[in-house]
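Feature request disguised as a bug report, sorry. It would help if multi-protein outputs had a clear separator. Right now it looks like this:
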Amino acid sequence: MSAQPEHLPVLYLSHGAPPLADDATWTRELAAWSAELPRPKAVLMVSAHWEEAPLTIGATETKPLVYDFWGFAQRYYWVRYPAPGAPELAARLRSLLPEAHEEPGRGLDHGAYVPLVEMYPQADIPVLQISMPTLDPARLLALGRRLAPLREEGVLIIGSGFFTHNLRGLDMHRRADHVPPNWSAEFDDWGTGALENADVDALLDFQHKAPAASIAHPRTEHFAPLFVSLGASLNGPAPRSVIEGYWYGLAKRSWQFD
C-alpha cells in the first residue's frame, strides 16, 4: 500500500525577473528551501503574471513556456522547463472550483518557471498554473481557503509575486543587496510584522494600512498571490520568513506557511 501524501506547507515567494538565475545568493536560497520541503506530488502555481476571469486552469500537459518579458538578453528566452503536466490535479481543481475555465495551450509564465528552475531543476514534478480571477484581497483569501484541501493530497501551493514591486523604483545601478529605498524597507517591515502577528484584517486592507503602499505596489498584482497562500493556510501557525533582503531595491522576502 502506498504511503499517504504528507501534509504540505504553502509558499509565497518573490520570483524575480529572468536574471534571478545569475544571482548566486538567491538561487542558492531557493534551492536550499526546496531541499527542506517534503517532495510534492504536484505543484500548483498562482503567479502575478496571469490575471484572467473567471479563474482559468492552464495546460494540463507540457507546453512551451510563456516568455512574458521584453528587452532581456537572448539567452533568457532559451530557458526551458519541461515539467510534466498535471491532468489529475486539474480534475481535482474542477471539483473544487466548478466555475473554472480551461486554457489548454497556455504554458507556464516566468512567475512560475523562473523560481521552479532553481527549486526543482530536474523538472520532474508535475506543475499546473491557475489564473488570478481578481486582485481583491478578500476574494483571493477565499480562493485560497477553497484550495486548502490540496495540502493533504501532496500538492505544494505556491503564490508567486514580489513583496515590493515598483519597477520605476528599480535601481539597477545599486548593488543588488545595497541599502534599499525607504519605501521598500518600510513596507517590508510592516508586512513582516502583520504576517508574524497574524493580522489578517490589516493585510487585507494593506493599501490603506501599510506605509508607502502605493509606492511599494503601484499596482497590486505582485502582492495579490500572498492572499491565496494566506487563505490556504488560515488557522495554522505563524508563517516563517525564509528569504529576506533586497534585489536592486525591491524586497525579495518569501514565506512558508506550515
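(second protein starts here, but nothing in the output says so)
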Amino acid sequence: MPLPPSARPAQTPRGQTAGTAPALSPAAPPRLAALRVIVALMLREMSTRYGRTPGGYIWGILEPLAAILFLSVGFSLVLRTPALGTSFLLFYTSGYLPFHLYQSVSNMVAASVRFSKPLLKYPAVTWLDAVLARFLLNGLTGILITAILTAGILTVIDSRTMLDLPPIIEAMSLALLLGLGVGVLNCALSGLYPLWEVIWSILTRPLFLASGIIYLFESLPQLAQDILWYNPLVHIVGLMRTGFYPTYTAAHVSPLYVLSVSLILLTMGLLLMGRYHREILNR
C-alpha cells in the first residue's frame, strides 16, 4: 500500500547525504571576480610602468611640472603679464593640467588591449577589464599629480588665490570622461586598422595649440572662436580656469556639449569593441 505524501521520506539532493548542509560554491561572485582581475591588472601596470625605472612615480610629477615651467619661463620673456592674474605659473597650471589628464587617459586606454593582450587569452580576463584597469590607474594618478602640483605651485608663488573646487572637480571629471571616450574608440579603431594610430597622432598634433592652454578663448578672432568652440578641450580648460580665477567668466563653456561628445564617443567605442574584440585579439 503506497504511503501518503506526508509520510514519505524526504528526498536527498544528488551528491548530498542526509543530515548535512548543502555545500557552498567555491566560485566567487562575478562582480568580485571582475574586481579582483581589474586590481591585478592595475598592480601589474604599476610594477611594469613605474617599478622598473629609477624614481618611479616621481617622473609622473616631473613631466607636467617641466612642461609648465617651460611655458612659464618662455612666455615671461616676451610678455609682461599672463592673460589672467599676475603669475605665469598659475595661469599655465590651470590650462595644462586638465589637458595632460585627458591626454594621459586617452593614450593609455587606447593601448590597453595591446598592453594586456597576453593576459586576455585567459577566460577570466576580458577586454573591458583591461580598459577599466588602465582608466582607473591613470585617472587616479592624474588626479593625484594635479593636486600635488597645484598645492606646490600655490605654495611657491605665495599666492592668496582661493580655489573654487566645484568647477575644478567638474573640469577634471569631464577630462576623464572625454579621455575614456576617445581612448575606447581609438582602442577599437587602432585594433581594426593599425594605420589609424599614426593618422590620429598626426591629426592631434595641433591639439595643444587649439585647446586654449596658452591663451584665452575670448582673445581670439571671431572666426577662430567659431571653429575652436567645437573642440571639447577648450570648454574643459575654460571651466578649469574659472575655479582658479573667480573674476573670470568663461561664457563659451558648455559642460553639456562636452558630456554629449564624450558619451557619444564612448558608446561608439563600446559597440565596436563588443562587436569586434575577438577579431582584434586574434590579429
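Even a blank line would do. Unrelated, but nice: Residues 10 and 169 are 62 Å apart (CA to CA).
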